[in-house]
Specification:
Shape: elongated
Largest sheet: 5 strands, mixed
Number of strands: 7
Number of helices: 9
Distance between the termini: 39 Å
Structural class: alpha+beta
Strand order of the largest sheet: 1-2-3-6-7
Oligomer: single chain
Radius of gyration: 21 Å
Helix content: 25-40%
Strand content: 5-15%
Length: 183
């Protein structure tokens, strides 16, 4: 939640809260007061719900758009809903959200998704069936038209049970092996 809010603050500014380390320290009484009172009363720190505390910072009525602007997961063509990894709040100001997904689950996907009302391109880490990175791209159409041919040539012998079609545009996206997808 903190990383999602940080991206919204970076891209949209006010009214999204400053959730950097310094921003949170400055507003401790606003978002963490209830939890601090519980700690003072003897509650163990492990029982604190910091997500609820951070949600107190959400601006209303804009908060209803949080999941549209910066969703937790992204639906890919195979039907999977893959978690989006957002950049650290105090990290690189140009860092982008990352989706790590098996290459086969994205066959035919031409338009790279954007978040925050179309302002931020998602960076894809396309993975092998074993979960190892094969390519990093923010331009899926360009990947399918170019570098995919080399990736296919190198990987189809290594992972023969998985689909490596010559034409990724026409292939059905799948998270399964060829045999399981045929059933």
């Amino acid at each position: 939640l903190r990383r999602r809010l940080a991206l919204l603050r970076r891209e949209l500014g006010e009214p999204w809260p400053d959730v950097s380390d310094s921003g949170l320290l400055e507003s401790l009484d606003t978002w963490l007061a209830t939890e601090l009172d519980a700690l003072a009363s003897g509650a163990p720190a492990s029982r604190l719900d910091l997500t609820s505390a951070l949600r107190r910072l959400l601006p209303w009525p804009e908060a209803v758009h949080l999941d549209t602007l910066a969703p937790e997961r992204l639906a890919v063509p195979s039907g999977s809903r893959v978690r989006i990894t957002y950049p650290e709040p105090d990290g690189d100001a140009t860092a982008r959200p990352v989706v790590a997904v098996k290459l086969q689950e994205c066959f035919g996907w031409a338009e790279t998704p954007r978040l925050v009302d179309g302002r931020v391109l998602v960076l894809f880490h396309l993975l092998s069936p074993a979960g190892r990175p094969l390519a990093v791209t923010d331009d899926l159409a360009s990947f399918w038209s170019g570098p995919y041919a080399q990736v296919r040539a190198e990987m189809r012998g290594r992972y023969p049970l998985h689909p490596w079609p010559e034409d990724p545009w026409a292939a059905a996206p799948t998270k399964h092996t060829k045999n399981r997808a045929a059933r």
